[in-house]
Amino acid sequence: MNFKNIKHTFLSNSxxxxxxxxxxxxxxxxxxxxxAPKLSDKPINAGMYGDQRTIEGVFQNFKTSYxxxxxxxxxxxxxxxxxxxxxxxxxGVDASWGRDQDMISTAGLFNASQALELVWNDIIVSSxxxxxxxxxxxxxxxxxxxxxxxxxxxxxxxxxxxxxxxDIWRIIRWRDESNx
Length: 180
Description:
By secondary structure, the chain is α+β, with helices and mostly antiparallel strands. It has helices at about 5-30, 55-65, 70-75, 100-110, and strands at about 80-90, 95-100, 115-130, 130-145, 150-165, 170-175.
């Protein structure tokens, strides 16, 4: 075999290899994997979340975060200086905790339950201005831990919300006025 034949064989094999590699590349990039579909451009349940620039949007987002057990959406509702206040009837005193403890507590509830259903009742009292509001409202909460362990609560909350610099209302105080 002479040099010319070796060169011709080498070039033919190289061109053939490049062509096969090119065809496989096109085939690989043009295929879609049915087990890994394209991600949607729309957020999941986008229509379920409210506009947090409105007070009703805050309550809608609270309800939806419980329905979907969405700690990210729940966290967006709370101001960094958030305080949760409840009555400790055993000790006869009010007790409280901050945002971090509330996020841990809520995540625990979300993880422990199979389903959560929150229904907001009518607003009882509402006072404030365009940057700070106090709202008192009743609610019904159904917590399903399993089909045989379902808790139904009726309660009332006194919420203070504040509009931040981005025009978003955030909860700064949640006073649970329920007696259970």
